[in-house]
Amino acid sequence: MKYSDATPAEIDSALKEAHVAFLSYKNISGKRKAEFLKAIADEIEALGQELVNAAMQETSLPEARIINERGRTTGHCRMFANCVDEGSWVEARIDTAIPDRTPAPKPDIRKMLVPIGPVVVFGAANFPLAYSTAGGDTASALAAGCPVIVKAHPAHATTSELVAKAIKKAVDKTGMPKGVFQHLHGASFEVGQTLVKHPLTKAVGFTGSLAGGKALFATASQRHEPIPVFAEMSSINPVILLPETLSRDAEKTGEKLAASITLGVGQFCTNPGLIIGIEDDGLVRFIKALSAGIKNTIPGTMLHQGIADNYSKRLEASLAQKGISVEGESISPAGAAQGKPLVASVSASEFKKNPSLAEEVFGPFSLVVKCKDLSDLHSVVSQLHGQLTASLIADDAELSKHQNIINSLIEKAGRLIINGVPTGVEVSPAMQHGGPYPSTTDSRFTSVGIDALKRFVRPVAFQGFPNSLLPNELKDENALKIWRMKNNEWGKD
Ligand code: NAP
Questions:
Q1: Catalytic site residue 146?
Q2: Could you tell me the pTM of the whole model?
Q3: What integer pLDDT is reported at residue 2 of this predicted model?
Q4: How far does residue 252's CA lie from ligand 1's centre (Å)?
């Protein structure tokens, strides 16, 4: 199905409607927002097989993955619903007056988080449901009290259209203001650029390429009123193999990583694109098992032709670099729009000299960096850019000897994993999905979990306000309740 690009007039009217909706939506109670978010989840489920079929057809992802992603999408809508219903996300700070304090009286000051206004969300190619129309950016912005304008990803426009219809049904059923959610199409950069430039847009959520994220960030910074762009862009998710632990479990570790590299044809932002180990017998056995796993994996169809073309181009460019050796590649040839699994290796000295080897190759590829010793390994780690994740294969005893590596990794990544693979992001209040540049544009925030809504709020202090004029959350009677409920668990129905 062909959808036409939103015109400048349609974009302007969408933002104006979103602004009008914001004036009422920002004051809607947590209870009503919760009803809305739960209704979105219900309506998405009510789409049934039609949605699953559309997503499978447009993305080439298998049914089980789409069903799983749908569960994640409805799950986070309900998680945010519970969060706003409970209410302590506003982080009420109550500092009461001391009128007789000397030398100056202390005023009553109360602070809380409030929504920032209309948010533009770019649907992500690699998550047609969980990071697109009703994805984490949309659900967290709506939970925060911000209207959302989604720009559908053209690679799954029909899936996006179906989910948009479900959200609009939820808007009607729960009596939300009409402009609280809007859905636009655009297969040219023009639409996205115009949305980001519009003066009524107050923030942007994006997942995609480094070039795309940087371009939108630049546009947002050059506006008369600069706005935040929360872009998740590029991460190679290093896996560090400590030698004593690896030597005990080299084969299993190789198999585990081969499965993680090829999961979903490597199209996860948490794909392990870099493996760092020390040249010894353990690493030789590890590479053998890793290569065997890669050789036996059949190439899969990628999300869209552009992603497949990018993968081939970047893979070819990486393999052409000095000192690169192919360690293993799928024995089956790759067909049209397919990504061929491949692992290569390079010495630490070549890796350190060549910054292009640290760039993301989005697809089923990983590069093994062979270090001479632990200090060589540490120097490779110290040179890494910002990452979403960093993993360590190491037992407690070995880890305790290498606190310096952990300390370096804390500076580099948003999530550190011990003895696990980076793919598979749990939606949990404690999750951090975000990291230093270039993995995201702002490492202080997460795009997964309850705290994702903090991207779309700002703090406001109310000084000297009579109780009756304070927002409900800061009134004497409610503040105490919110404080007491602080330790409640979110994410449950
Ligand atoms: P993309 O090219 O970055 O596009 C994502 C969205 O941003 C699309 O809606 C696109 O608009 C828009 N966009 C991109 N550049 C723009 C610009 N300069 N101005 C305005 N809008 C812009 O990503 P993709 O199509 O999903 O995949 C392409 C590559 O992105 C992949 O090969 C991969 O390298 C990377 N990627 C990385 C991740 C990750 O998590 N690290 C995830 C997905 C993709 P149009 O649709 O109008 O083109």
A1: no
A2: 0.95
A3: 85
A4: 35
